[in-house]
Design brief:
Elements lengths: L3 E7 L9 H6 L6 H10 L2 E7 L11 H9 L5 E6 L4 H13 L6 E4 L14 H10 L3 E4 L10 H4 L5 H6 L5 E4 L6 H10 L3 E4 L9 H21 L5 E2 L9 H10 L4 H15 L3
Parallel strand pairs: 1-2, 2-3, 3-4, 4-5, 5-6, 6-7, 7-8
Helix pairs in contact: 8-9
Length: 274
């Protein structure tokens, strides 16, 4: 089995973690030990850990993400969530400054927060990210909650930001699902824009299995449009998607083995400096 880097993982030890419903549907205990064992079993050598949403709507505090990574034996690296307040942006920058060797990216939850990527509240975070070469991962596309704002999470809302900040590395989470063509245009147009394929399938049964084939076709077409797979990054969105299902999606892609290897680990290693 080929090696992999999982660039999009969620985990907490909170009972009020809103992703526990997905874990239950996938038959997962949703624990650190289970996650690390799944990574070992599927040859996932490293992972990036992002804050899951709590039932309150707020993300898990960054301090708890740092703590889980410290207990992972070097298998997980933290991604710091940046919320749209001056205090939260300052705190996120401080976290990244104090842990430069550990923090691999910032995350902005477009569609869950009531601002766009263009909001001035994020200016200091963007400046810091450009100076330090720290990627920013943006939630794009469908939201896990019915009250999410799809207008703000549409991938094309990041086009202007990518134009204005050519030194800012932007990662579109979930490939803009369901706007795959729009995400493909962004990674084709902008040298500084990438996309991950996390959280695109979940569960089992007849329709989910067929849906995986549909998604694989869409991602393959996007790669053809972009002229290669150098801008596409593997991720699960655990516990929404299990490692087995996410790896199976890569197997279904209609691309050559070298491009699959780029997706599975080479691209993440370069973008996140792993």
């Amino acid at each position: 089995m080929p090696r992999a880097i999982d660039a999009h993982i969620h985990l907490s030890e909170r009972k009020d973690d809103d992703l526990r419903r997905f874990a239950k549907n996938n038959g997962l205990r949703y624990t650190l030990n289970e996650l690390l064992e799944s990574m070992r079993r599927h040859h996932v050598e490293h992972g990036l850990l992002l804050s899951p949403p709590m039932r309150s709507g707020a993300p898990l505090p960054n301090e708890e993400i740092i703590g889980l990574c410290q207990r992972s034996g070097g298998r997980l690296s933290p991604v710091v969530t940046v919320e749209p307040t001056k205090k939260a942006v300052g705190s996120a920058i401080k976290f990244a400054q104090e842990r430069k060797r550990d923090v691999k990216a910032f995350k902005i939850r477009l569609g869950y927060v009531k601002v766009t990527a263009q909001s001035a509240v994020f200016r200091d975070a963007y400046d810091f990210s450009e100076e330090e070469g720290l990627p920013i991962m943006f939630h794009t596309g469908d939201t896990a909650s019915a009250d999410g704002d799809l207008i703000r999470s549409h991938p094309l809302t990041l086009d202007r930001l990518a134009n204005e900040r050519e030194d800012l590395t932007i990662v579109l989470c979930h490939f803009g699902n369901p706007w795959f063509d729009d995400a493909a245009e962004l990674i084709y147009k902008h040298p500084n824009v990438y996309a991950d394929i996390s959280g695109l399938t979940t569960g089992g049964g007849e329709y989910p299995d067929r849906f995986a084939e549909v998604i694989a076709r869409k991602i393959s077409e996007a790669i053809y449009f972009a002229g290669g797979a150098e801008k596409v990054i593997f991720g699960t969105d655990y516990p929404i998607t299990k490692h087995y299902d996410a790896l199976n999606l890569v197997k279904l892609l209609r691309i050559d083995d070298a491009d699959k290897e780029n997706i599975l680990w080479r691209n993440a290693k370069k973008v996140f400096k792993l």
